Amino acid sequence: MGCTAKDVIAALRAGAAVVAEHRDELIQLDREIGDADHGENMERGFRAVVDKLDTSAPETPGAALKLAATVLISTVGGASGPLYGTALLRAASAAGDAEELDATAVAKLLRAGVDGVVARGKAELGDKTMIDALSPAADAAGSVAESEADGVKALAAGAEAAHEGARNTEPMVARKGRASYLGDRSAGHVDPGARSTALLLSAFAESARARS
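The structure corresponding to this sequence follows.
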């Protein structure tokens, strides 16, 4: 089962809904180790994505991802806009003009997103950032792609791995971003970027599953 442009658009709308639902949680997580704006910024950005989708009709998955990337970069403040925008822009480039995304393509897109965030933010696994959720997601999707072509299953596996990765950031000491200024005091808190990454991937996976 593959993901078409309509599936990606539906997934982006589902992502906007889950960000709005968890806005206060993300604000609180960011208040503990950051500047408390992650939830508000993410909600504003994805609301803008939905507004743009209401007046646009991307014809390929890559075009839909590029639209979302452009909107997030232009509307989301702080680090979130550039990082999420770069991830989606790299994913859009990896998707190319394909009309449908199978498991191999989903894994490729997630890995491209990881590479984009690493290039932009210079973070690595264990730095207590969104990479700690996104990289395991790419690995899990890649494992599914080795045995089958179902893009929905690959995305679902990625989402599950992202949640585990986000939970694993709690005991970490941050080495990047504003949280790194806290040193050892950053331990004991889930990274908000990792949490929002996991929430978005789950929303994308659930949307894709519902449409399959």
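The two ends are 7 Å apart (CA to CA).
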